[in-house]
Amino acid sequence: MSAVVSDVGTRTAVEATGLVKVYGKGDTAVHALAGVTVAFEAGRFTAIMGPSGSGKSTLMHCLAGLDDVDGGQVRVGGTEITGLGDKDLTKLRRDRVGFVFQSFNLLPTLTAEQNILLGLELAGRKPDREWFDTIVEVLGLRDRLKHKPTELSGGQQQRVACARALVARPDVVFADEPTGNLDSRSGAEVLDFLRMSVRKLGQTVIMVTHDPVAASYADRVVLLADGHLAGDITAPTADSVLAALKNLGA
Ligand SMILES: Nc1ncnc2c1ncn2[C@@H]1O[C@H](COP(=O)(O)OP(=O)(O)OP(=O)(O)O)[C@@H](O)[C@H]1O
């Protein structure tokens, strides 16, 4: 059992144990994850960083049940997801996991409001109107709800994507380079919101990023190198993250 799990008062939202992911076979096999054990606490904002090719995206995909694993276990909200069938995995992703992608991934024919509520609708769930209103208010989307994605700025589209990720009150939100397509001001707004969703709304966020400034919004940075855990920084600053990355040769 990891130290995090045994901490009094700390709940683990997502946990990987001995995670192995291999691409290819024989001489050309790449050990993208070579036995990663890491726990992500609930109610915390964690960034995953590391040099290019270190396994960040692979780790996130395996944690989110988007990719199968070759060894080890993943637990999301207490449920072991490694070994779940496609149907159960789809349900788990739909009901208990939120996603924010670099490219927003909104449906162009739907309004902002319809995009935010689509997942719940597909799941046959009724939105919690109070929670919906809270998210919309905090994200400053009230007067944009009837607009289609093409009528919104990049920053507004990503805020709609954040609302969509949070509306079902998931166990965890995975954000994959959420500021990668945004200018620094819009990026800062999205990061402010992700941090606030953790501090004030009690959500759990795990974000992959290349950007030390983006990582400094997190409570903790987990570093990967060559498919291994290579560091763990609490209360990161852009400088401390940059220094740690330099040590890894990034
Ligand atoms: N589908 C795939 N087939 C073969 N190899 C892959 C595949 N996906 C990833 N890899 C390899 O696995 C390793 C880890 O890749 P991954 O994309 O997880 O790294 P990353 O840290 O997210 O990189 P980046 O920062 O460049 O996005 C790399 O060596 C990569 O080339």
From TrEMBL:
Q: Which Gene3D superfamilies match?
A: P-loop containing nucleotide triphosphate hydrolases
Molecular-function GO term, any one: transmembrane transporter activity
Q: Which GO terms describe its cellular component?
A: membrane protein complex; plasma membrane
Q: Write down a Pfam family by its short name.
A: ABC_tran
**Record PANTHER family:** ABC TRANSPORTER RELATED (PTHR24220:SF685), IMPORT ATP-BINDING PROTEIN (PTHR24220)
Query: Which keywords are on file for this protein?
Result: ATP-binding, Nucleotide-binding, Transport
Q: By what name is this protein known?
A: ABC transporter related
Q: What sequence ranges are listed for the domain ABC transporter?
A: 14-245
